[in-house]
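Researcher: Structure for this, please.
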Amino acid sequence: MTQRQPDPNIVLYDTLQRQKVPFVPATPGRVGMYLCGPTVYSDAHLGHAKKEVAFDVIRRAFTHLGYQVRYVANITDVGHLQNDSDDGEDKMLARARLEQLEPMEVADKYLWSFVKDMEALNVLKPSINPRATGHILEQIRLIEELIERGHAYESRGSVYFDVRSWPEYGKLSGRRLDDQEEGTREAVREEKRDPRDFALWKNAEPGHIMRWESPWGVGFPGWHIECSAMSLKYLGEGFDIHGGGLDLQFPHHEAEIAQAEAAGHAFARYWMHNNMLTIGGEKMSKSKGNFLTIQDVLTQHDPMVVRFLLVGSHYRSITEFSDAAFESARSGYRRLTEALHETERRLPAAPAGQDAALDARVAAHTEAFEEALRDDFNTPKAVAALFGLTTDINAALNAGAVPRGTLERTRDAFRTLGGNVLGLFAETGAPARGQDDTQVVSALMDLVLKARQNYRLNKQYAQADELRDTLTRVGVTVEDTKDGPRWRR
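Model: Predicted structure, token format:
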């Protein structure tokens, strides 16, 4: 397949500029994206799913619109302290003590749990998945650069970023330094020049298991420094996009910018943040206890329905979790899949040719879908375009035979837009294999329907009903129409 030319008309909302702006890549035709990944100390919850799915769609959209994407998502396995502060216990250590495991056992256990969740939701694997513990040297070097430039200082074996030395601190979140909370713990005040200074390197107290040698003594990196170091290492100076949840905007992303730029490095050119997922109007989070793990949700709902619920709201909008929302998502997703499956079922016996009018409608829906992507990756409008395609193909199929060429164009639109870009229809597999499977299923179903018809002709109604009931139990509906029996999933 010929690679399409990169689309020059994409606009996105840049948190730093607080407005939609045209996207202009640092390197023509290429996009470098960095996403703040999980802290692997417990199972991921549905709020994490929103972030991962949102940026997965953005990545897929860039690819669809002609760009080569390098997508880097980190794994935090050290340095993230309780309450996202510089004070408290490392989340990895707390979980290791609770489960009586080594910290790296905890990290690997929940990393693979996270990977399994992402595979179920059809989230593509990152181009690079760096771990904080694998990049200690890079973090130490960046800290040394900050000390050399007068933006960091050592205190009692720890190193802190001097926020007063960097007047631009707060530009992402819009928080002026003098308005930020100063904290009250005396221990923090004694060790830091300013309570708002944040840790780049923490001294490891006796008994602290995760520890590395450094120029300042044995310790471990702070939470923020890893992302600055790893994004610069794998995406280079002035890379295109840094993404993450809105809850990371301050202090994590604010600290990342300060660290990188104060050390003399051009950092992310665009900042993108997804909004929250809520239950009963409150943010879903582990600290509040009002969360469901992704694994919990997937025991109750089809993974593609979960994904459809998430892409049905814009990444910058709040997504409300409720039974009603899932029921709506289930109904909507069923409508799309039934249209796709019926299109594929009709293909083998379809007459040759094209329906020019319907082809034009398919092209119009495709253009509407892509226009939605160009407008800050507006997935609700993109989904609406898919429903428009569904309405048109259903009307055509109900009216009679649709030419093979038009059915193929419709199938390809569903698979490309809904499958490759939105990441849906994963249960049917890759397009080539899915097409083969569909043909096999269609052939088998034709035999089943013929057998049922023979039972009816021979007045063996009990056997005919038994066949229909068996199909119903496995999710296949048989409809008797004036043109003969039809089936659908």
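Researcher: Any notable elements?
Model: The mean pLDDT is 88. Residues 345 and 439 are 7 Å apart (CA to CA).
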